[in-house]
Amino acid sequence: MRTDETGSDPSLQEKSKYICEVCKKTFKCVSVLRRHRLIHTEEKPFVCEVCSRCFRTLFNFNRHHYVHTAEKPIKCDVCEKGFVSKSNLNKHYLVHTGEKPYKCDICQKSFVNKSNLNNHYLIHTGEKPFICDICSRSFRQAFHLKEHYQIHTGKKCHHVCEICNKMFSRSSALQRHLLIHTGEKPHVCEVCNKTFSRASCLKQHSLTHKLRVPQACKVCKKAFKGMTELKQHLLTHLEMDPPKS
């Protein structure tokens, strides 16, 4: 390897000759260095004439213009749906491929994108970070809070329970609520036949079966999902045993 008088490789010096004087990061060309310097100065020279929003790079500035024009030039070659950026198109492709790369490490449920996974985690933690500043009611997702605000503003016709007069912003929420009065539990566990009024409660209950340690019969070595099933099975052996003389 060739070296100069300082003992360093001249080719490496050539590749990194543009150095940021603030953080000492090196760049191959001066244009990239100039763009990098804007991070330190916080300068945003590209200003939108419509909304006055500022941008650090020309690329982000040009992409922002699509917000005002409603233009979506990047098309999906499967369904022709348009997108502003290539990254959004790549996320959309997962709808067609059926791929769900983001998996919950608690219940193993999979999701198309990370934001949906993060929202799902709130089911396990019980956290409801979106709080109404009028009545302090909390919600798991932002759009549920927005719908709730309509109760206070009166912008939307309410769905009212005829039994207790409780109001709901969505018809689906009213239908779920009515199950409290009727006592109906239409969601049935396939393992133990326990019934639930909500599908979400059934899903949560199903995890108890998945997390059970398999129980084996000491007589015939047959395995069962839980102790209840094993006890029921043991009765079959008692019935088969001949009476003692």
UniProtKB/TrEMBL annotation:
It is found in: Nucleus. Coiled coil: none annotated. It comes from Araneus ventricosus. SUPFAM superfamilies: beta-beta-alpha zinc fingers. The gene is ZNF99_4. It comes from the Eukaryota. Residues 18-45, 46-73, 74-101, 102-129, 130-157, 159-186, 187-214, 215-242 form the C2H2-type domain. InterPro entries: Znf_C2H2_sf (IPR036236), Znf_C2H2_type (IPR013087). It holds the Pfam family zf-C2H2. PANTHER family: C2H2-TYPE DOMAIN-CONTAINING PROTEIN, ZINC FINGER AND BTB DOMAIN-CONTAINING. This is Zinc finger protein 99. Its main location: nucleus. GO terms for cellular component: nucleoplasm. Keywords: Metal-binding, Nucleus, Repeat, Transcription, Transcription regulation, Zinc, Zinc-finger. The keyword Metal-binding applies. GO terms for molecular function: DNA-binding transcription repressor activity, RNA polymerase II-specific; RNA polymerase II cis-regulatory region sequence-specific DNA binding; zinc ion binding. Transmembrane segments: none annotated. The keyword Repeat applies.
